[in-house]
Amino acid sequence: MEIVFSDASVSFAGRTALHPLSLTLFERRIGIIGLNGSGKTTFARLINGLVRPTTGRVTIGGLDTVADEEAARGRAGFIFQNPQHQMILPVLAEDIAFGLKNRGLSATEIAGRTEAVLQRFGIPHLARRRIHELSGGETQLAAIASVMVTGPDVLILDEPTNQLDLKNRRLIEKTVADLPEQAIVITHDLGLLDSFDRVLLFHQGRLAADAPPEDAISRYREIAAC
Ligand SMILES: Nc1ncnc2c1ncn2[C@@H]1O[C@H](COP(=O)(O)OP(=O)(O)OP(=O)(O)O)[C@@H](O)[C@H]1O
After folding, report:
1. What number of H helices and E strands is found in the chain?
2. Record's family (predicted)?
3. ipTM of the prediction
């Protein structure tokens, strides 16, 4: 899926969070790194229209995130930093099924797709569990299942391994690595990026590097040392 930024910038209340940026993303695994407040989340949110560009435009698969907002949003799933907040219904299987409502599917089809996505992410045993009772790793997988059931082409994850222990980090790392879909991952967990195709480094709202992981990370270390 081609994601195109054309002179896109973002200001909040007159303060620039992201300076005008033009680039095209098409790689399967894209990492986004940078210091706190450098513009990573703002950049990622532009992709599915959660943030609108103040100037310029962003398209995903040719769809404009403002003019074709709803269709564009369907192309890119987003997992927030605290994914339990994006789950609407208390029980996991119900939350997943909720994402399929209003699609003209029968109850049997909804149940079948819910079961299939739980299987896909190895969590059928969590189907009847309450979301607020899941562990950090389980919550990440649950959120990924809830988003992927709607069939986006791109999955954007905002710090998916934050607060996870080593075992769950590995699990999420493997889950992301195995996704056939395109994935864009914001992370402070630099080890996650080893096998990535491309890493974008943001600094003070500007793109400071756009390179293979090793090069972008070494530039990041220089910036962080200042
Ligand atoms: N909705 C908003 N309203 C006002 N300012 C915002 C808003 N969202 C982000 N900002 C500001 O824009 C700048 C970039 O924020 P952003 O969340 O994109 O950074 P980040 O790199 O993702 O940070 P972190 O690593 O801490 O999550 C920050 O100065 C932030 O305070």
Report:
1. 7, 10
2. Belongs to the ABC transporter superfamily.
3. 0.96
Tokens found for residue 47? 């992709």
82 lines ligand 1 (CB under 6 A): no
Helices (H), 121-165: 136-148
The pLDDT tens digits of the residues spanning 192-216 come to 999 999 999 999 999 999 999 999 9
Distance, first Cα to last Cα, the chain: 36
Q: Which amino acid is at 4?
A: V
41 lines ligand 1 (CB under 6 A): yes
Q: Of the candidates 98, 25, 111, 22, which has an alpha carbon nearest to the alpha carbon of residue 61?
A: 25
- Alpha carbon distance 32, 126 (integer Å): 30
Fill in the amino acid letter for 100. L
pLDDT one-digit tens code per residue, 185-195: 999 999 999 99
Question: Residue 158: which residues within 8 A CB-CB, separation 6 or more?
Answer: 41, 44, 78, 79, 80, 81, 186
Question: Which three-class secondary structure state does DSSP give residue 1?
Answer: coil
Give me ligand 1 centre to Cα 39, in Å: 6
The whole-model pTM stands at: 0.95
- CATH topology classification for 3-89+154-225: Rossmann fold (3.40.50)
